[in-house]
Write a structure and sequence with these properties.
Layout: E1 4-6, H1 12-19, E2 31-34, E3 40-44, H2 71-78, E4 83-86, H3 98-101, E5 124-128, H4 131-146, E6 152-155, E7 170-173, H5 185-193, E8 197-201, E9 204-206, E10 216-217, E11 223-231, E12 238-245, E13 248-254, E14 263-272, E15 277-285, E16 298-301, E17 304-306
Parallel strand pairs: 1-2, 4-5, 5-6, 10-17
Antiparallel strand pairs: 2-3, 3-4, 7-8, 8-16, 9-11, 11-14, 12-13, 12-15, 15-16, 15-17
Length: 331
Amino acid sequence: MVPSDHDIIFDFRGLAEQMGVLDRIALPLPGVEISPTFGHLGAYGIQFAADAGAGGAPAGRPGGRPLARAHHRRAGRRRPRPGRHRHPDEPPPRHLGLVQHRRLRPRDPRRGPRLPNWTTDFETVEVYNGQTDFCQVLADWLGLLNQGLRITAVGNSDTHGESRAPGYPRNYVRTAGTAAHEVTGAEVSTALREGRSIVTGGAVLDFPFGPGPGDTVVPDAGSVRVHVRLRTPPYTGIRRLVAFHRGAAVFDREAAVDDAAIIDLDEEIAIPVEGDGPLVLLALGNPRLPYIAGGPVFALANPIWIDADADGTITPVGPGPIALLAMSICE
């Protein structure tokens, strides 16, 4: 459990200790969601302080919303663990994110990230906060990856009331722990920094025989072979698997599966690639995940990095347009 409340740090670990559940639940990385005048920022590794205002959360102006001035730098100084930008590109009337506020369009070839008041001092970006914004933010993220920024995609439940079940979407990270309570904060932060994670809404996408997210691969004859496994509960399923290389769709396959099946796909597939750059897999399923107040069934894997010329360096393709396919999750 990696909690973050708006502008306050709560002692969830102390609560779990009182409940006697620390043998089942790990709380390795306390965090806070900072609410400046545009967008939101997640900062992790800030410890709860019982004798400090708001539990030790960064101080803000009256009303609980921190000053926008250099807010990313303040968060950066305070966090020894990965920080992330939330709501990075939301249209009005919702919060204006950092990307939109700076009028940055990573997919536009006429503009780049070298703008006044722009920073790359963040490790992750909240690609899925809601279905309405997902495809717009996905395109922005793919554009940033093309410019050589290794920013890890995450998704978060944003549970703002009893009608919003926690855990949709959620993030899975690579860990050596054999049980949940053995997972450490160092493992979580390392996995996120290295991009060894997936974002999932009711589906689990993994790579049992590699390569997987965060790995670097040299292609063979213009393609990369990846062993993909997709699993869903017996009341839903995956319908489509898409792969983007350097921001362009290079693989698109429909999947006719029985919802009752747990394993929807478990095979090695060949994906065509051309040049250095990120390879991102996106699995799409049923339009709604039953039983919880969630959205569509999907899984998004962070990039496998393609070293096409085998020189040990990923040469960025640079800024350019990102043309997403027509996808049900964008509707």
